[in-house]
Design a protein that fits this description.
This protein is 80% helix and 0% strand. With 248 residues, the chain is mainly alpha-helical. The two termini are 21 Å apart.
Length: 248
């Protein structure tokens, strides 16, 4: 079997993305989709992550569903589910390079807002909550990157890290159903996605386990700092800086 640098790159990316997702409850897509897109394109990377993450996070999801607050999760999820098809349309039709730059700018903007010390009461009206959910759903459909908007929203309300993490697993479960349905309807879950899912799944699974183990005992401050780094990394990884390494 010949050496395939793109596949090795994707395998290492899946491992790091799994660690991030297992620790913080989000962020796997922020690493996986941009970097795997550099090797295989976003139309393969995003559905591949959806398949891998859906299957491998089920054990985490079952525990998180008992801990999350559905009165916080449900309104955001409703807004997200409605907006997912628009994001999928963008994924299917927008020039990949333009999409990657747009996601980088969005990630940097959300990071700046979070690091500014911005806080809110956590009692925003339904239109605002639905709007945040819609932004998350649009980004989720376009690149499986629905995490930053809701993370900024919940951390901005001063939520404890354990609750934010549990809420994220519940939120992603609902958004994943919408994204998966839309991807399937557009014929984007194909043989290439299946092949890549089987090859990268073990690395993602190992990362999930390691990340979840690391979260135990982590303080709220450590979680917040980790969230900063994950979102900053998303902005960096969304840029086409790594394409040359893969001969793209």
């Amino acid at each position: 079997m010949s050496y395939d640098p793109a596949l090795v790159w994707a395998f290492l990316t899946a491992l790091i993305a799994g660690v991030t997702r297992g620790f913080s409850g989000f962020g796997g897509a922020l690493i996986f989709v941009p970097l795997v897109s550099a090797a295989f394109g976003p139309k393969v990377a995003a559905p591949t992550l959806l398949v891998i993450d859906t299957v491998l996070t089920l054990p985490f999801l079952l525990r998180a569903l008992r801990a999350c607050l559905w009165r916080q999760v449900a309104p955001l999820a409703v807004g997200a589910v409605v907006a997912v098809p628009a994001g999928v349309w963008v994924l299917e039709h927008m020039e990949p390079l333009v999409l990657r730059w747009a996601l980088a700018v969005l990630s940097l903007g959300l990071l700046a807002l979070l690091m500014s010390g911005w806080r809110h009461s956590g009692r925003h009206g339904l239109p605002t909550t639905l709007g945040v959910g819609a932004i998350a759903g649009f980004c989720g459909g376009a690149a499986q990157m629905s995490g930053p908007a809701v993370v900024v929203y919940w951390l901005g309300a001063g939520q404890p890290s354990a609750l934010v993490r549990a809420n994220l697993f519940g939120f992603f479960a609902l958004v994943t159903l919408a994204s998966g349905t839309a991807y399937a309807a557009h014929g984007m879950i194909d043989a290439e996605v299946g092949r890549l899912s089987l090859l990268l799944g073990p690395a993602y699974a190992l990362g999930l386990y390691a990340g979840a183990r690391s979260f135990k005992g982590a303080s709220d401050k450590a979680y917040r700092i980790a969230a900063y780094w994950v979102i900053a990394g998303a902005a960096l990884f969304s840029l086409p800086l790594f394409d040359a390494l893969l001969g793209r």
